[in-house]
Structures are given as structure tokens and as C-alpha cells.
Design a protein that fits this description.
Blueprint (H helix, E strand, L loop, with lengths): L8 H4 L6 H11 L14 E5 L14 E5 L5 H4 L4 H8 L10 H13 L8 H10 L6 H8 L12 E6 L7 H4 L21 E2 L2 E2 L3 E4 L2 E8 L7 E5 L17 E2 L4 E4 L4 E6 L1
Antiparallel strand pairs: 1-2, 3-11, 4-5, 6-7, 6-10, 7-8, 8-9
Helix pairs in contact: 6-7
Length: about 270
């Protein structure tokens, strides 16, 4: 929504009110990557797709991230990449927050009513003053208002959302030239919540490694579990790496989980 008369607090401190905030919005949208050389550089700037001399605005939909090495006079001239962007009206990707992040934000603000919103134009200078590189947890340190950093802990907590229900299309729709749903397919047996005493997303130990139950094997016995680590990499038997599922009898149960998995790393 573009309205220069808006004066409420949220809009005054938002991402698109003044140019400095828009700048960091553009950086985040472009993943802090130069859109010419496709590299993450330490020094970035925002380039006007439609030049200001040609009537281009300071709005985010007319700005794109480039690095100092690519922001050259040659690229601005006729035939240069910036000039071609302007001629062809270069399209930009849409930057949309995931829906669940909006839910988290609302619940956080409801639980901690004294909390305040902050923005990239505030966080980035604080992080730079602390001498920290761009990462999510360094942004959190900058937001916390620390004046100095004595040491950087090596432990970090990793969270990941897990979808418990397999949304297989072959369960919901009939195949071509068929009138009924394909519910008798062999692989449908994987679409269950538990098997062999284990549930989807259970945290277990297999051959000394912490893993999560990602799915189940098909077949008459059906007591083998597909295991993955927190980053989604499949856990295999050290002696039988060709096996994609491991016997439930070889798993040591740790705990049940809901739709989130987490682990502490060193």
C-alpha cells in the first residue's frame, strides 16, 4: 500500500517509509547477493532499475542489489546490463514472509506486550558496530542491545518445521482413465502416522547418531523406519548403506515431537 499521508507508528518505522529502510528491505529480498555477478559481497548498494534521470523512483520495486565491482559506468551506458534492465523493465521476485512467521510474531507480541518492533536500518548499524558478520543469530545479538562482545559461543540451537501428514496426490485424486482414487497403491502404506511402535517425527538414536523418524517402509512387516537428521539428510546403516529404512528394533527412543524438531550443535 503506497500512501504518503500515513503517519501511524508502524508505518513511520516500517520497511518502505524512508529510503534507508527500503535499502535493507531490498538487500533481504535479494538475499544479500549482487544480481549481476550472483555473489555475496561485503559492500552492496541499491541500483535504480529505471534511472532517476529517467524518472525512476526510490520505491523497492525499482531498486535492485548490486555490488561495488559491478556498479560501473560501463554497465550504465547503452548496451550495458543496467541499461538493458531499464529497457526490458526487469522483473523482480516477490518478497513475502511465510505465513507461520506472522503467526509467531503475533503470539510473541501477545505474550510479551512490552516488546518493541525493530527494523533492518537499526539492526544493521548495531551489528556492524559490534564487528559481527551477517547471520540470523548475530542480528539477534544486535537487536538485544549489547554494547560489546567478549566471546562468541560455539553452541547453537537449530529448529526446523516438520510436516507430519504426507500429502500424496495419488490418495486424493484418480489417475487418468480411472474413476476411483488410487488407494491400493503399494506406496500408500507409507502414509501413516505410526508403525512398529514409532510415530512420525519421533527423536531416536541409531548407531550412535541422533535422528528423526521421517517415514516408514512399505511391505507386509512394515516395521522399518526412514531416518533423517535435522537438516534432512538420510541416516543409513554403516554396514548396509543401500538400505533406505532401518529396523525399528535397532532404534532407541528418545522422545516424541510435535511439528517442530530441534537440536543443539557445537
Amino acid at each position: 500500500m503506497i500512501n504518503p499521508d500515513i503517519s501511524e507508528t508502524d508505518y513511520q518505522n516500517g520497511n518502505t517509509k524512508d529510503y534507508y529502510d527500503v535499502r535493507y528491505f531490498v538487500f533481504a529480498r535479494d538475499n544479500y547477493t549482487c544480481q549481476v555477478c550472483k555473489k555475496r559481497k561485503p559492500h552492496l548498494r541499491t541500483h535504480h532499475i529505471v534511472y532517476k534521470s529517467s524518472g525512476g523512483t526510490n520505491r523497492a520495486d525499482n531498486l535492485i542489489t548490486v555490488c561495488d565491482e559491478c556498479h560501473t559506468p560501463e554497465n550504465h551506458k547503452a548496451g550495458g546490463i543496467f541499461y538493458l534492465w531499464m529497457e526490458k523493465h526487469k522483473k523482480l521476485k516477490q518478497y513475502k514472509e511465510p505465513t507461520f512467521m506472522n503467526i509467531v510474531r503475533k503470539r510473541t507480541m501477545a505474550r510479551y506486550p512490552m516488546a518493541e518492533f525493530t527494523y533492518g536500518s537499526i539492526t544493521a548499524p548495531n551489528r556492524i558496530a559490534l564487528g559481527l558478520e551477517k547471520t540470523h543469530y548475530n542480528d539477534a545479538i544486535a537487536i538485544a542491545g549489547m554494547e560489546s562482545i567478549k566471546y562468541n559461543p560455539i553452541e547453537h540451537l537449530y529448529y526446523k518445521q516438520f510436516r507430519k501428514k504426507k500429502r500424496s496426490l495419488h490418495e486424493q485424486t484418480a489417475r487418468k482413465a480411472k474413476t476411483g482414487k488410487n488407494t491400493n497403491a503399494v506406496r500408500n502404506c507409507k502414509n501413516v502416522k505410526q508403525r512398529g511402535g514409532f510415530f512420525l517425527n519421533d527423536k531416536v538414536v541409531f548407531q550412535g547418531k541422533v535422528a528423526w523418524v521421517y517415514g516408514f517402509a512399505c511391505g507386509e512387516k512394515g516395521k522399518a523406519c526412514v531416518l533423517r537428521d535435522i537438516k534432512g539428510i538420510m541416516i543409513r546403516d554403516v554396514e548396509h548403506t543401500s538400505l533406505t529404512a532401518q529396523s525399528a528394533s535397532k532404534l532407541n527412543f528418545l522422545c516424541h515431537n510435535n511439528g517442530w524438531i530441534y537440536s543443539q550443535f557445537i
